[in-house]
Specification:
This protein is mostly helical. The protein has 24 helices and 4 strands.
């Protein structure tokens, strides 16, 4: 009678035995990107998947999760559960997720498929293949979940088109374009380690806990379904870094440089999450500052203490992120309110009660620097004259965020950095972004900056209506200030608030 295989032996047969030594083509022609980044791996057999997950087990595990997820999505739709969210402002956080984050899942699917093809080690190939399938599943479940909102609210109709064209969505898009055009080792350092291990809790946990707190159980369910995969991805990301560091001492300075770069790029991308947490959730779970302190300063600090034995230090400029935690969300929301007429969601000013919450969470900065400005904007809203900025902002050449961040040690002065390359001037929002450009100028001089493209006439025309049409935004609905939006009017009718207002009048 055949002996039953244990998990380790089964994993070895389902992965390592899939490999073979090429006889018709030299090794370097099969894997042409192995040497171009300078990473040295002498023995790929030392790569170990800590989960030892085989493909047959993977399909069974994911199928069970899919059955549970789709039963909840069906129940959510059948019970008109969109009416149970706190108020229609919450739905704008979902619009931001669908246009800014879900397309990145698809990019990750493509990226890991590409990396799996480039790595010679069969263990790493199988791990990349599974993660590629994971990412494809994530984008599909997110689309299915949020499609319910498309029946009742504006702004969900053409999210992939908006991701490619709308000005602020070039921030997440350029982040992944940057990773996809790097070599395989840099890609996996950027996505598996710097983003998924170090920063992913600052993306998924705030969105999903915010969804739960605001009554959106369908989004919570896809978040939990994806989070179990993310936990596996995080562990793999850490193992990847250790594998490369243990393979050869010459790898350390290359990897440290990538960690510096991708920490800063990821941190700038998360500025969108900061404003979601502090301004877009009607019921808030925690402040951005609290989340940054918990997930990066404490958890990330412990991680880098552990990695110090390999010679890895904290990412360059991390201390700036701590200084900015007191103001990042306020400065970001201010810009989106200014340029909300060209954004794919509704913006608004916080109520007095919400300003009190912000004041309590940010006692050093909110009342002094931001409350007066926001009170002024809210007064204009109440007079029926909401403020919009008719200009176009200068964008950072690297992260593509409008240049509105203030100096790390002076919240009253906009941070402005510049470099000259081949006779042209380039502008940056921070020392972190300037460093990234100066290290790879030939890559970043090619950045497709939305504002520059509008001025050059490449975005549908020279007027705001022409640009909005090119974005596929419905003017007056998708981009309206929330108190003047059709979504708000519909919400009041659905909840019976119009009758109450009429009775009160």
């Amino acid at each position: 009678m055949a002996k039953k295989l244990n998990l380790r032996d089964k994993y070895a047969l389902m992965t390592r035995d899939l490999s073979w030594d090429p006889s018709y083509q030299p090794f370097e022609k099969l894997f042409p990107q192995m040497e171009m980044e300078g990473i040295k791996i002498d023995d790929w057999s030392k790569w170990e998947d800590p989960f030892r997950l085989t493909m047959d087990a993977y399909w069974k595990y994911q199928a069970e999760k899919e059955r549970k997820l789709y039963s909840i999505i069906d129940a959510f739709a059948q019970n008109n559960a969109h009416l149970n969210v706190t108020d229609a402002r919450y739905v704008n956080a979902i619009k931001l997720f669908l246009t800014g984050v879900s397309p990145l899942e698809y990019q990750a699917h493509r990226g890991f498929a590409m990396v799996g093809r480039q790595f010679p080690g069969v263990g790493a190939q199988v791990a990349c293949q599974m993660q590629s399938v994971d990412e494809l599943r994530h984008v599909q479940t997110q689309i299915h979940t949020m499609s319910h909102y498309n029946k009742y609210f504006n702004g969900f109709h053409d999210w992939s088109h908006m991701h490619d064209r709308v000005w602020y969505l070039s921030v997440p898009k350029s982040f992944f374009d940057d990773a996809m055009t790097a070599g395989p080792f840099e890609f996996i350092t950027a996505i598996s380690f710097s983003f998924e291990y170090v920063l992913t809790n600052l993306l998924f946990m705030p969105f999903m806990s915010g969804a739960a707190y605001n009554g959106d159980m369908a989004t919570v369910t896809f978040g939990f379904s994806a989070q179990s995969d993310e936990s596996r991805h995080m562990t793999l990301g850490l193992e990847v870094i250790k594998f490369m560091l243990e393979a050869h001492p010459d790898n350390l300075p290359i990897i440290q440089g990538w960690i510096d770069k991708w920490f800063w790029r990821g941190y700038r991308l998360l500025s969108l999450v900061s404003m979601m947490m502090d301004y877009m959730l009607p019921k808030r779970v925690m402040s951005w500052k609290e989340a940054w302190d918990m997930y990066f300063v404490q958890n990330g600090g412990a991680l880098f203490e552990d990695l110090a034995r390999y010679g890895v230090r904290m990412p360059k400029h991390w201390e700036v992120s701590v200084k900015e935690a007191d103001r990042l969300s306020h400065e970001t929301w201010n810009v989106f309110y200014n340029y909300g007429h060209a954004a794919a969601f509704n913006s608004w000013m916080p109520s007095e009660e919400e300003m009190e919450w912000l004041s309590a969470k940010y006692p050093e900065t909110f009342d002094k620097y931001y409350r007066p400005r926001f009170t002024f904007f809210r007064n204009l809203e109440e007079q029926g004259k909401p403020f919009s900025n008719p200009t176009l902002p200068m964008l950072c050449q690297t992260c593509q965020v409008p240049m509105f961040y203030t100096e790390p040690d002076d919240p009253t002065t906009v941070c402005f950095r510049a470099s000259e390359y081949k006779g042209d001037h380039y502008h940056f929002c921070s020392d972190g972004c300037k460093d990234i450009f100066d290290n790879e100028p030939e890559k970043y001089v090619q950045s497709w900056l939305p504002v520059h493209q509008i001025y050059q006439g490449n975005c549908g025309g020279a007027t705001v209506p022409e640009v909005l049409e090119w974005y596929h935004l419905v003017d007056g609905a998708d981009n309206a200030k929330y108190p003047f939006s059709p979504d708000y009017e519909n919400w009041k009718k659905w909840k019976g608030q119009v009758a109450k207002e009429d009775d009160a009048a």
